[in-house]
């Protein structure tokens, strides 16, 4: 058993954990849940030696231990798979899997690379990846990188494995495979600490749930005793709202027309339109072409043929800069860690990076007063929880990082917003807030929004027209959502039929 007793951790301006006690038993899958900023990641980092507790003790099998760094954690048979993709891009798949145990393959002072590659193949097979161990990491997808991190943790033969949002980048097939692996590890006596915001996933998979809120321990319950709303109430102190948001005042004019878009090997004569004040949903499984389409529209990737018209005029978009500065179109990427944010820079700089051209003086210097006004306004408007505007963005919780990623495009006052997977890796409270924010942008400010999501409840709640993507094509359209309130079951059945 791994026991944490009376753990307290304080950072400048915030108490991250306050007298938290919890235990994790071998042969159990134990979920750790809470809103972003509740203290989950801090607790994980204490277990793995990245942070040291200010107060409290850690016990393994009844004996007190000091975990001063990650190597100590490995020595105590603890390993983790971070939500953030942490790989060495220029290294091979095998090198990344063996990274924290490379000395185990040393013979007479030299690394036996054949043995490293053979061992890597074993764990690649275990996580369902058909890759060569000698392949470079840099060319792989986010989902493949995530599975390689999981393979790395499995290769350490740990008794305690912490999985932080492990399915956030995975397809349904990959998620199903991972769940099989987790259940097998449980049967082999491994303790799985499963950090997730996906309540349905937790209820299906986990034996126990521990909830933190604002750094405090709220409780540990057997999952079999809980309904979804019980977990939500423990997390946010109230029940989740699933009310119908109403109808939008969608105007007849097209603000965005995509005509005969062609990208060799992907799209062929693809057409789409977006109306003023509309939330248009693009739904489909990971890899169906939704994100690739968005990246072409905003100039991040190349179009081989076709035209984009904005407000009736043919657009010339060759970069994100063109998209923003010429046409007031913004793109909230699904990959906030690598593309959406400069994590090592401050919250303030990330918020106003899109408006610097507007607020420079004749000496090409940023007008400090105007800059600070925008920063403070966005922090208050989006309710970003940060000790200071100067706090580095990588010190914020995932949900607050997502708010920063959205806020920079709101600061730019875009007329068209493409928002890709807005609530991946955020808690139920932040999720509700982001949903209201997106809705109000269309309802109150007449912004036009393309919402990309693989979360069916999210797309049905927000979109008033849904295009279903499959294999880089539009398989069909659900277009009657802004006239009469439809039940979730009715709409989801229509979407399912289009995907079949």
Provide keyphrases for this structure.
Rossmann fold, 500 residues, 2 domains, 34% helix, 6-stranded mixed sheet
Specify the CATH class of the largest domain.
Answer: Alpha Beta
Number of helices, where a helix is a run of at least 4 consecutive DSSP H or I residues: 17
Which spans have pLDDT < 50 for at least 5 consecutive residues?
A: none
What CATH architecture of the largest domain would you give?
3-Layer(aba) Sandwich
Structural class: alpha/beta
* CATH fold assignment of the largest domain: Rossmann fold
Span from first to last CA? 45 Å
The count of DSSP E runs of length 2 or more, i.e. the number of strands, is: 22
Sheet with the most strands, sense and barrel status: 6 strands, mixed
Mean pLDDT: 89
Q: Nearest-angstrom radius of gyration?
A: 24 Å
Overall shape? globular
Q: How many domain modules?
A: 2
Strand content: 25-35%
CATH superfamily of the largest domain: P-loop containing nucleotide triphosphate hydrolases
Helix content: 25-40%
Written overview of the protein:
With 500 residues, this protein is of the alpha/beta class. The protein folds into 2 domains: 2-236, P-loop containing nucleotide triphosphate hydrolases (Rossmann fold, 3-Layer(aba) Sandwich), CATH 3.40.50.300; 254-499, Rossmann fold (3-Layer(aba) Sandwich), CATH 3.40.50. It is 34% helix and 25% strand. The protein contains 17 helices and 22 strands. It has helices at 40-47, 70-75, 93-98, 113-126, 142-154, 172-187, 199-205, 228-236, 290-297, 320-327, 336-340, 347-352, 368-382, 398-411, 428-443, 456-462, 488-499, and strands at residues 2-11, 14-24, 29-33, 55-60, 63-65, 78-81, 106-107, 110-111, 160-164, 191-195, 208-213, 216-222, 254-263, 267-275, 279-283, 305-310, 313-314, 329-332, 416-420, 448-453, 465-470, 473-478. The strands form 5 sheets. A 6-stranded mixed sheet has the order 6-9-10-3-11-12, with helices on both faces. Strand 16 and strand 17 (313-314) form a beta hairpin. The radius of gyration is 24 Å and the shape is globular.
């Amino acid at each position: 058993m791994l026991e944490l007793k009376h753990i307290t951790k304080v950072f400048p301006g915030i108490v991250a954990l306050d007298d938290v006690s919890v235990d994790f038993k071998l042969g159990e899958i134990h979920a750790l849940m809470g809103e972003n900023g509740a203290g989950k990641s801090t607790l994980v980092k204490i277990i793995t030696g990245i942070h040291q507790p200010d107060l409290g003790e850690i016990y393994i099998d009844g004996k007190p231990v000091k975990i001063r760094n990650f190597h100590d954690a490995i020595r105590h048979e603890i390993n983790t798979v971070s939500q953030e993709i942490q790989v060495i891009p220029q290294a091979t798949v095998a090198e990344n899997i063996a990274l924290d145990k490379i000395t185990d393959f040393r013979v007479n002072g030299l690394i036996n690379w054949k043995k490293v590659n053979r061992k890597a193949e074993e764990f690649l097979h275990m996580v369902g990846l058909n890759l060569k161990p000698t392949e470079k990491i840099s060319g792989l997808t986010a989902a493949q990188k995530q599975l390689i991190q999981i393979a790395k943790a499995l290769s350490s033969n740990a008794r305690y494995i912490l999985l932080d949002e492990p399915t956030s980048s995975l397809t349904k097939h990959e998620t199903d495979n991972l769940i099989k692996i987790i259940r097998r590890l449980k049967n082999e006596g491994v303790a799985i600490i499963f950090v997730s915001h996906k309540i349905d996933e937790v209820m299906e998979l986990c034996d126990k749930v521990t909830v933190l809120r604002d750094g405090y321990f709220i409780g540990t319950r057997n999952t079999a005793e809980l309904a979804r709303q019980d977990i939500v109430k423990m997390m946010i102190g109230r029940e989740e709202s699933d009310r119908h948001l109403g109808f939008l005042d969608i105007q007849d004019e097209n603000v965005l027309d995509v005509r005969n878009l062609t990208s060799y090997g992907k799209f062929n004569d693809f057409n789409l339109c977006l109306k003023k004040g509309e939330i248009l949903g693009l739904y489909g499984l990971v890899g169906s072409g939704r994100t690739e389409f968005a990246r072409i529209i905003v100039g991040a990737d190349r179009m081989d043929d076709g035209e984009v018209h904005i407000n009736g005029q043919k657009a010339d978009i060759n970069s994100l800069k063109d998209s923003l500065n010429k046409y007031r179109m913004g793109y909230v990427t699904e990959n906030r860690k690598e593309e959406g944010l400069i994590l090592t820079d401050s919250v303030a700089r990330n918020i106003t990076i899109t408006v610097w051209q507007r607020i420079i003086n004749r000496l090409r210097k940023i007008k400090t007063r105007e800059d600070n006004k925008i920063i403070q306004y966005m922090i208050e408007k989006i309710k970003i929880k940060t000790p200071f505007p100067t706090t580095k963005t990588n010190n914020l919780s995932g949900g607050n990082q997502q708010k920063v990623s959205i806020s920079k495009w709101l600061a730019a006052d875009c007329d068209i917003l493409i928002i890709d997977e807005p609530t991946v890796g955020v808690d139920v409270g932040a999720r509700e807030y982001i949903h209201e924010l997106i809705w109000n942008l269309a309802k109150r400010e007449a912004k036009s929004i393309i919402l990309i999501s693989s979360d069916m409840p999210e797309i049905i709640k927000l979109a008033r027209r849904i295009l279903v993507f499959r294999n880089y094509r539009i398989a069909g359209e659900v277009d009657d959502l802004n006239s009469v309130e439809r039940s979730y079951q009715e709409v989801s059945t229509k979407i399912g039929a289009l995907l079949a």
